[in-house]
Design goal:
It comes from Sphingobacterium deserti. Residues 30-245 form the Beta-lactamase class A catalytic domain. This is beta-lactamase. By secondary structure, the chain is an alpha+beta fold. It has one domain (9-276): Beta-lactamase (3-Layer(aba) Sandwich), CATH 3.40.710.10. It has nine helices and eleven strands. It has helices at 12-22, 57-70, 104-113, 117-126, 130-139, 155-161, 168-179, 186-196, 258-274; strands at residues 9-10, 28-35, 40-44, 50-51, 78-80, 101-103, 146-147, 164-166, 215-222, 225-234, 237-246. The strands form three sheets. The protein has a six-stranded mixed sheet, with helices on both faces. Strand 9 and strand 10 (225-234) form a beta hairpin. It is globular and about 55 Å long.
Length: 287
């Protein structure tokens, strides 16, 4: 666990550079950056609420592991998939044959690595739903991080924010707590973190760091909102950041979507600010 012994300090240069970078963005954007070793931060609408889209799968992960911690669930337990669970969007489970078996560990991996929606909805059920996950988030001090979908009493918020909601500061805090083993035992925390390190969708922020650098992350995308939270093990020290957007004018599902392009530029700016000796130039994505 990091302990600096002094209060967080605003990184004025990086804040200035990022504000210049996001000026003129047609939508709302929030950014929170924390360099853990130096305890420097950047806050741009860091406490505003944004849709999580698939980033909600990080709280779902914590919810599942809460059940594992209590003994109610086991990673090697098998479950039977039926076609009644078929659901659109990202993922592979919707292609499974009827009555195929899958264990919980594989389900979690699909939820996080491929952002599988079928696996994610199933994991949400196994975790006890939003009724169990939301109080857990509050217990962790994350009062604005909520599961809205399939959660009684949150229908209006589901219409406003979708599956889940959070703030840049809170989702960074959650990723940091997972990494530092502050939620469950070190053994369970390490297992959660290993799942988050394997990402199929690696062409946003992750494309802006050298391939040898270890990261853990989760992206989220719906028509009018694109977001990402990333924990980076940089040579000069770990840093973690979130970029969340909403009400985006550009709602295209293309790689040159404005919010996704901007996220890459933000990630590259953050990397080169903290790692000037390991400057990394952005390059064209591979078709």
């Amino acid at each position: 666990m990091y302990f600096t012994g002094y209060a967080q300090k605003t990184d004025r240069k990086l804040t200035h550079n990022l504000k210049d970078l996001v000026a003129g963005f047609e939508g709302e954007i929030g950014i929170y950056v924390h360099h853990l070793k130096s305890n420097r931060t950047v806050e741009i609408s860091a406490d505003s609420i944004f849709p999580t889209a698939s980033i909600v799968k990080v709280p779902l992960l914590v919810g599942v592991f809460n059940k594992i911690d209590s003994g109610a669930l086991k990673l090697n337990a098998n479950y039977r998939y039926t076609l009644e669970r078929e659901y659109g969007g990202s993922g592979l489970m919707q292609l499974f044959k009827d009555s195929a078996e899958i264990d919980l560990s594989t389900m979690i991996s699909l939820m996080l690595t491929y952002s599988d929606n079928v696996a994610s909805i199933w994991c949400q059920e196994l975790a006890g739903g939003g009724q169990a996950i939301n109080p857990l988030m509050e217990k962790l001090g994350l009062n604005e991080t909520k599961v809205n979908s399939r959660t009684t009493g949150r229908e209006k918020l589901w219409k406003q924010y979708g599956w889940g909601q959070t703030t840049p500061r809170e989702i960074v805090k959650l990723m940091t707590m997972i990494r530092q083993g502050e939620i469950f035992s070190p053994r369970l925390s390490n297992k959660m973190y290993r799942y988050l390190k394997n990402q199929f969708y690696n062409e946003r922020s992750l494309s802006q760091f050298p391939a040898y650098v270890a990261t853990a992350s989760k992206t989220g995308s719906v028509d009018a909102a694109r977001g990402e939270v990333v924990f980076v093990h940089g040579p000069s020290g770990d840093f973690v950041f979130a970029v969340l957007t909403k009400d985006n004018k550009d709602q295209r599902w293309t790689r040159d979507n404005t919010a996704e392009e901007l996220t890459r530029k933000i990630a590259n700016t953050i990397w080169n600010h903290f790692e000037p000796k390991h400057e990394f130039a952005p390059f064209d994505l591979i078709d």
